[in-house]
Amino acid sequence: MKTLLTTLPEDAAEIIRRGGVVAFPTETVYGLGADIFNEGAIEKIFEAKGRPADNPLIVHIADIAQIRLLTDDLTFSADALFRAFAPGPITVVVPRSSKVPSIATAGLETIGIRMPRLAIAREFLSACGVPVAAPSANISGRPSPTTWQAVLEDLNGRIDCVLQGNESEIGLESTVVDCTSDPPVVLRAGSISVEQLRAVIPGVRQLDSNDVERPRSPGLKHRHYSPLANVVIGLRGSVNENGAYIGLRRPEHEFRHMRICEDLNEYARSLYEFFRECDRLGIPSIHCEPVEETGLGLALMDRIRRAAEPAS
Ligand code: TXA
Ligand code: MG
Description:
The protein is of the alpha/beta class.
């Protein structure tokens, strides 16, 4: 199929209304969207990405009023977190309404809901007129795309349309909070930090990787965010000068490809695109400087760790 490129949210929305799949920008990463109530369209998302059928999608809304189409039970904690942080980079997991096709939630009785804050995303979602299910717009297992060019690199010819926007300003996926349990549990760290969540709901728990009830978030068990290159945390072990480096401080060695970031925000924003650049250059290994695991640093280290895990 030919993938249409457009900068007009209304044109992209028309394709959603006709049952197509459209990649669109958000403040976190680009998403690959389809009408949540159109099962055939939802199937196309799984197909285009090569996404395992047991990994649920999150649904994007333009307006708080759309929540009632998706759940009959917006829990107290979900309501409080949405009031505090939506629109923005947060996803709340709540019980799913029976009207939502179960293919979208991979058979789970719960659904993740997110309201992006990026203006062009909101215009697009309003014009769609329906909630839009959307995972990140990458081939499954690859780093999430933060530019429309990165979307095309993975999905050109496999999707109907790309709504072209700017580079994503955050660059890491949203904070996912399971609000079906009391206290709520952070399933995926993001730029809205645990500290910020606890300012609203003091009891919020963090999932630790040894948690026995795992995985409550099916996506956590799949390989994620990985470039082809071997990702190494820090400069331990043998440093390959043919390799690459990204971090806040300039390393002692020279590397073939380097990115020194001004601050944590720039590091987070640049990580996935740096991974992709390294793959384009055929670089064998990428050293990532570790950072302190508080605030945004927790989300950044989570993504770096997953990328550094050996393929399973
Ligand atoms: O920032 C974001 O969240 C981006 C943009 C496009 O909105 N989307 C995104 O979607 O990262 P995706 O599908 O790549 O990641 C969603 C994560 C997955 O790990 C999935 O398993 C988890 O959220 N998830 C979705 N629905 C869930 C549910 N009902 N219960 C538990 N986990 C869920
Ligand atoms: Mg993803």
